[in-house]
């Protein structure tokens, strides 16, 4: 019964207007052009850009956050340089390792000769960002307030982020070993920051976020809340893209990612059927284009669920857990020693995909207008992708269980 509820909830992701658009296109253009149309629709969803602006003076932890948000340390390829007191002179772009369409931009501060208040918005392309993270360490600066005011005027979402909370707590504990109270300190910092922002009229309704920018602290203080609130400020398609890109996994996030991926199975199964997916699973009749598509799908699932080679390697280096131990969780669950899709692998996975609990709701009434064989191909392709995703979800949860308790959040 639970599976049925899940399947029914997935159906909402294909809206009535989209169904009408698909069917109208098929009626007008026919089978071959419809296949290309579906492929382009899928690419559109996957290639939606998300641009995050990160602002603040040097020393507020911007670079460390840019790395932590992407699941990187300063030693990893593509990491932002940490510890430098040099002022950012031009907007610096950092791509997310699992999705190049998600970018974080370290923006120059306001008030330099090139980036003054008269030209700042134009020079940094202010309107191009989805939202702004305004970083502060110990005090709210005039430039922080000005930037928040400009965001308000342009109806841009912004977040006030108070960093180095870990350092503040450690320092207070050292200074007051007998009377130290972490919760009291956090309240004082939060209330003090709120008072200053309210005075200037820029206190956001979601409050101030107290975080550490260290990777090992993503489950402490307000870091997870900041992630979730960032997601909720985005429109639906951008929210899905950013959710799938988040690297610092928890059980809840893994489940949320899989819900998004399952919501896309209908379109993917439809495209597989259009490409010539063979429902019987006979490997000699399965087009290479179909095998490549399935292989790419599995690769995208692995990236979203933290099971790609790069992520597992970084986890191994960070935690000391043997890389082979992490990789084996995936290969054993998926029953694929090389994690490459072949005709034999498809046959094996299809044989395991006949689960009566998985209800395949029709994606489009177009299916009934084609042929019985096409309908069977669609259903078989859906069950295959559902099986692969389910196995990788299990593998991701198993890898999470291997992490030290400070590395993940229990649901």
Number of domains: 2
- Briefly note the structural class of the backbone: alpha/beta
Q: What is the end-to-end distance?
A: 22 Å
Radius of gyration, in Å, reads 24 Å
Describe the structure.
- The longest helix has 31 residues, at 372-402.
- This protein is 54% helix and 8% strand.
- Residues 1-13 and 406-411 have low confidence and may be disordered.
- The chain is globular.
- By secondary structure, the chain is α/β, with parallel strands linked by helices.
- Helix 6 (142-153) links the parallel strand 4 (131-136) and strand 5.
- The relative contact order is 0.11.
- It has 18 helices and 6 strands.
- It folds into 2 domains: 2-46 and 250-407, no CATH class; 50-245, Rossmann fold.
- The chain has a 6-stranded mixed sheet, with helices on both faces.
Describe the structure concisely for a colleague.
The chain is of the alpha/beta class and 411 residues long. Helices cover 54% and strands 8% of the residues. It has helices at residues 2-11, 16-29, 31-46, 62-69, 120-123, 142-153, 165-175, 182-199, 223-232, 236-245, 251-263, 265-275, 288-304, 309-319, 323-334, 343-351, 366-370, 372-402, and strands spanning 50-55, 92-96, 99-106, 131-136, 157-162, 208-210.
């Amino acid at each position: 019964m639970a599976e049925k509820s899940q399947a029914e909830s997935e159906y909402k992701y294909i809206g009535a207007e989209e169904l009408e658009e698909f069917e109208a296109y098929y009626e007008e253009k026919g089978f071959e052009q419809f296949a290309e149309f579906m492929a382009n629709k899928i690419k559109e969803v996957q290639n939606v850009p998300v641009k995050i602006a990160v602002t603040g003076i040097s020393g507020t932890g911007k670079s460390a956050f840019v790395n932590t948000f992407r699941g990187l340390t300063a030693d990893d390829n593509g990491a932002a340089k940490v510890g430098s007191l040099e002022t950012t002179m031009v907007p610096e772009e950092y791509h997310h390792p699992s999705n190049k369409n998600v970018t974080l931009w370290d923006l120059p501060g306001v008030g330099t000769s090139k980036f003054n208040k008269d030209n700042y918005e134009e020079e940094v392309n202010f309107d191009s960002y989805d939202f702004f993270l305004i970083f502060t360490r110990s005090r709210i600066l005039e430039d922080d307030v000005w930037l928040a005011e400009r965001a308000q005027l342009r109806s841009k979402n912004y977040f006030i982020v108070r960093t180095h909370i870990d350092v503040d707590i450690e320092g207070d504990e050292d200074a007051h070993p007998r009377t130290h109270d972490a919760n009291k300190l956090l309240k004082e910092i939060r209330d003090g920051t709120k008072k200053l922002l309210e005075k200037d009229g820029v206190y956001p309704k979601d409050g101030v976020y107290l975080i550490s920018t260290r990777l090992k602290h993503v489950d402490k203080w307000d870091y997870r809340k900041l992630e979730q609130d960032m997601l909720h400020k985005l429109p639906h398609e951008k929210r899905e893209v950013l959710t799938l890109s988040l690297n610092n996994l928890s059980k809840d996030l893994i489940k949320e990612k899989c819900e998004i991926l399952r919501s896309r199975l209908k379109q993917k199964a439809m495209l597989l059927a259009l490409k010539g997916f063979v429902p019987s699973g006979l490997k000699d009749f399965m087009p290479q284009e179909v095998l490549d598509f399935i292989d790419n799908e599995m690769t995208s699932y692995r990236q979203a669920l933290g099971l790609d080679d790069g992520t597992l390697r970084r986890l191994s280096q960070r935690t000391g857990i043997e890389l082979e131990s992490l990789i084996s969780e995936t290969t054993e669950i998926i029953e694929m020693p090389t994690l490459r899709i072949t005709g034999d692998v498809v046959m094996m996975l299809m044989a395991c995909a006949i689960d009566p609990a998985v209800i395949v709701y029709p994606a489009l009434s177009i299916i009934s207008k084609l042929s019985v064989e096409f309908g069977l191909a669609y259903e078989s392709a859906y069950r295959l992708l559902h099986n692969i995703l389910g196995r990788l979800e299990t593998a991701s949860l198993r890898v999470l269980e291997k992490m030290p308790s400070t590395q993940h959040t229990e649901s």
